[in-house]
Design goal:
- The protein is built from 13 helices and 10 strands.
- With about 325 residues, the protein is α/β, with parallel strands linked by helices.
- The N and C termini lie far apart (about 40 Å).
- The N terminus is likely disordered.
- Bound molecules: NADP nicotinamide-adenine-dinucleotide phosphate.
Length: about 325
């Protein structure tokens, strides 16, 4: 066991003890503060990926953010405390994301090492996937990418995945994974040909589509699930934010529906990347570490699952 793993297990054990000793629902003010501090510590600690690298649990999604808006939002998120930024070649904003990150680094907000940048390779890059990796690096202006995913399944996944593995060997990429693979069988189609087991599967995931079966299966390989569309995506957010249970929980915890959804995902051990072009929302979405949903309320959230995705890719 690595030192990192040992420390993290010890922290979890301590956390569990605090909860069993206090009874999570009826805490004295002092104990409540201790629990919140411990909860914050655990959920703000990064996830240890099977690649040996650490990944923050909450990040900014940048789909639909372009130009100066993308740069400003990325910069603002880093200023607020985010250390994970999600983009893709398809979003056509890697250069703007790179600008926002470099600006934050230049101002001493964070170092490159502290920031975790994810991008995705397009399935139609199968003929020149090695060049696509260099294109992303050049667009960012970085000498490595923290995580690169196959954006969607395609006919040439195997070739593309091996190109990502070559990227790791060349020191251009630290961790690799896949996106939009929803069943154990589909995940295995890559795992079975992989020399490097995927570190992350990034999938649509929200209260109405929870797919906890896949998360349980991936545990066997140390692979973690990252949720896209935590709020259902643009045009659908009212369906999630307007849900009666989520509204009631928001009232109960003095939080917003967005914060309830994010907190539920974090407590379920999902990495989550809410997208936003609004500075107040970016701040709100990061303000999820001063409360904890009780086990009963987690069950209420789990009961919202309809196994229904908003998208079909
Ligand atoms: N791998 C894939 O195939 C894939 C597919 C889709 C998305 N993604 C990634 O996942 C990220 C998240 O998905 P998404 O951005 O499409 O959808 P999302 O995070 O579910 O929802 C974004 C929407 O929520 C609104 N919003 C954000 N915070 C809010 C708050 N606190 N209160 C009220 N509204 C709020 C945003 O509006 P404002 O801009 O006004 O805040 C925007 O309309 C993407 O940005 C992208 O990085 C990956």
């Amino acid at each position: 066991m690595t030192r990192r793993k040992f420390l993290s297990l010890m922290t979890c054990a301590l956390f569990a003890n605090i909860f069993s000793a206090c009874g999570a629902e009826n805490l004295s003010e002092k104990n409540s503060k201790e629990v919140h501090d411990m909860s914050k510590k655990i959920l703000t600690e990064p996830v240890a990926l099977n690649s040996g690298f650490d990944m923050p649990r909450i990040g900014l999604g940048t789909w639909k953010l372009t130009g100066i808006v993308a740069e400003e939002c990325v910069y603002h998120a880093l200023k607020v405390g985010y250390r994970l930024i999600d983009t893709a070649r398809y979003y056509r904003n890697e250069a703007n994301v790179g600008n926002g990150i470099r600006r934050a680094i230049a101002e001493g907000i964070a170092t490159r090492e502290e920031i975790f940048v994810t991008t995705k390779i397009l399935p139609d890059n199968h003929k020149t996937p090695d060049i696509a990796i260099d294109d992303s690096l050049n667009a960012f202006g970085f000498d490595y990418i923290d995580l690169m995913l196959i954006h969607q399944p395609g006919r040439w996944d195997e070739e593309t995945y091996h190109a990502l593995e070559r990227g790791v060997q060349a020191g251009k990429i630290r961790s690799i994974g896949i996106s939009n693979y929803y069943t154990p069988e589909h995940f295995d189609s890559i795992r079975n040909i992989a020399r490097i087991v995927p570190a992350v599967v990034q999938n649509e995931n929200h209260p109405f589509y929870q797919n906890r079966e896949l998360q349980a299966y991936l545990k066997n390989f140390g692979t973690v699930v990252e949720s896209w569309y935590p709020f259902g995506g643009r045009g659908n957010t009212h369906k999630i934010f307007g849900n009666e249970t989520i509204q009631q929980l928001a009232e109960k915890y003095f939080k917003t529906p967005a914060q309830i959804v994010l907190r539920w995902q974090l407590q379920e051990n999902y990495i989550v990347i809410p997208g936003s072009s609004n500075k107040a929302h970016i701040e709100e979405n990061f303000d999820v570490f001063d409360f904890r949903l009780s086990e009963n309320d987690m069950s209420l959230m789990r009961a919202l699952n309809k196994n229904k995705r908003f998208e079909n890719w």
